Amino acid sequence: MTIGGISIGGALGAGAHGSSLLHPTSLSDQVLKVTIVDGLGNIHEISDPEELKAFRVHLGLLGILIDVTFPTVPLFKMTIHNTPHSDDILSNGTALKWAREHDTFSMWWFPSTSSVVASKGSYIMDPSVPGTAATFLIGNTNSVVLPLASSTIQILQNARSRVGLQSIQWFAEKSLYRQVIGKPQIYSQDNGHTLSNPATGFAWKLLQNKCTTCAWSFKSKSLYPEDFSISVSLDEFPKALETVKSILNEFGNHPYFYMVGVYLRFSKASDSYVATNSGQDIVDFEWISPSTRDPFNEPKYGLAVFQTIQQALVSSNCITIASIPTN
Q1: CATH hierarchy code of domain 8-69
Q2: What does each C-alpha distance from 56 to 8, 14, 39, 61, 319 come to in angstroms?
Q3: What pTM does this model have?
Q4: How far apart are CA 221 and CA 290, in angstroms?
Q5: How far apart, in whole angstroms, are the C-alpha atoms of residue 43 and residue 64?
Q6: CATH for the 77-315 domain, from 3.30.70.2520, 2.30.42.10, 3.40.50.10330, 3.90.550.10
Q7: pLDDT tens digits for 71-122?
Q8: What does the alpha-carbon distance between residue 172 and residue 191 come to, in Å, rounded to a whole number?
Q9: Neighbours of 97 (CB within 10 A)
């Protein structure tokens, strides 16, 4: 997961997960025991492996969780390295090979420039290895800068400015793997001032961070980011890619995913009944697209594209569950 501040109960309920085909990607898959209060006020302790399959991802429907038991492991670090590539790696087997080789692996895909930024992570079991890097992917903002950024994106969306949005995408893409000016560096050992790539540090600090003044915290001045995610069986990954590419070609391959591309992350199969990866390895297609300030009268840039992709993946049976907005 890339967002901090998520509670244990919330993570279990939704099956929130990271990205790996080598290890369990969610807290849910690591639950050993839960204690719940049911709708009649009775307390139940669930530890039977078969019963836990129903309770690991519960969607808030199976009672109130009182406590949860997890296994523990010795403290460890990791090294993570982001590198740019042609998006040929998505279809020629390279990306899936890397996903199966690394402890954590994810990608940001920018279709309009036929490029991908791959993020490869390897665990280091010796915590004394030098390195204190953390991620600042979701940076803090302020009430002065945000209205300017929000107004700029509003103008570019209304004007359908391909050049302007392409510039935002160029900046977003480069910030994933090289030093940029104007935002915290994605991995850093000095609080976001200097880029570390590759970066070594404690895994939890390198894989998630928590903004205290977030881009969506200023109400009417917010960027109104809308986040969508679609889970696809790994066997259907090539078909899903071709579906997305064909739709983009039909509409014109514009910078629709200019905020941070299409985020691709992986999960190994789970035995949790209602998890998106229940019984199969999956890949998630995710994207963030800012809405306009008046979404009913001013449709956001690329709205038809986003909806067509979602509907096409559902109707072509690539999808494992329906797409649900997360905000």
Answers
A1: 3.30.465.10
A2: 11, 9, 18, 12, 22
A3: 0.91
A4: 12
A5: 9
A6: 3.30.70.2520
A7: 999 999 999 999 999 999 999 999 999 999 999 999 999 999 999 999 999 9
A8: 19
A9: 12
